[in-house]
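Anyone opening a protein record will find just a pair of labelled lines. A complete record is shown below as an example.
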Amino acid sequence: MSTEKPIAGQVALVTGGSRGIGLAIAARLGRMGARVAICARSAKSLERAAEGLRRDAIETLAMAADVTRPAEVTALVEHTRKSLGPVDILVNNAGVGIFGPVQALRESDWDAVLDTNLKAVFLVSKEVAPEMIRRRTGQIINISSLAGKNAFANGSIYCASKWGLLGLTYCMAEDLRTYGIRVSAVCPGTVATEFSPHAGKDPSKMLQPDDVAHAVAALVTQAPQSFISEVLLRPTQKP
C-alpha cells in the first residue's frame, strides 16, 4: 500500500457529497486512492461535483438519491456495489438544519431534520452493514456536530437530531466492532459553508470543510487494532 495512496482500491460512499463538507471529504478520500460514490438530492449539483472530482483523476460515481427513502437507499448501495465494488468506507454526511424557538417550529420541521440527520444514517448504515459483516471489515463515519453535546437557543430540533446521532453511533459501534467494523463520529463546530447563516462571525476564523475532511482522513488510516470513536473539532480562534 502506497503511503501516498493509503486507501487505494477501497470504495467510499459519501452522502450529501455534492458540496461543502461532503464534497471536501469525497475529494480527500479520492486523493488518498479511494473510488468514490457521492449522492445528493440534486442531480445537477451532483454532476458538477462529480466533474470536479474526475478532473482530479478520482474515479467517481454520482447518483441522485434521497437517503430518507429506503428504496432509494437500497438502489444507491446496490448501484455503488455494481459500479465500484462493495462499500469499505461509509461517510454519513447528509444533513439539514431548521432553527427557531421550539414554540414556533412545526411538526414538518421536526420530520425534515430528524429524517435527514438521524433516520437516514440508520437506513444507509443498515444497508451497507451486512456486506461489511460478511467481509469482516469496514468503516462507518457519522458527521455529527458539537450541537450533539451543547444546547443553544433556537437549536432544539437540530440538537435533538445530533444528540440522537451520537447515541446511534455508539450503539452501532458496539454492534459491529466484533466483525472488525469501526464506527466513529466527527463533531465539528461551526463550519464555513452555506449550510446555515453565520451572522456576526468571521468566516476566516471558522472551521473549513477541509478541516472536517482531515479528521475523516485520520479515522480511515488508523492502525487496525484500535479505533477512535469520536472526534471533537473546534477552530483555534473563536469566530
Q: What stands out?
A: DSSP finds six helices and seven strands in the chain. The two ends are 40 Å apart (CA to CA).
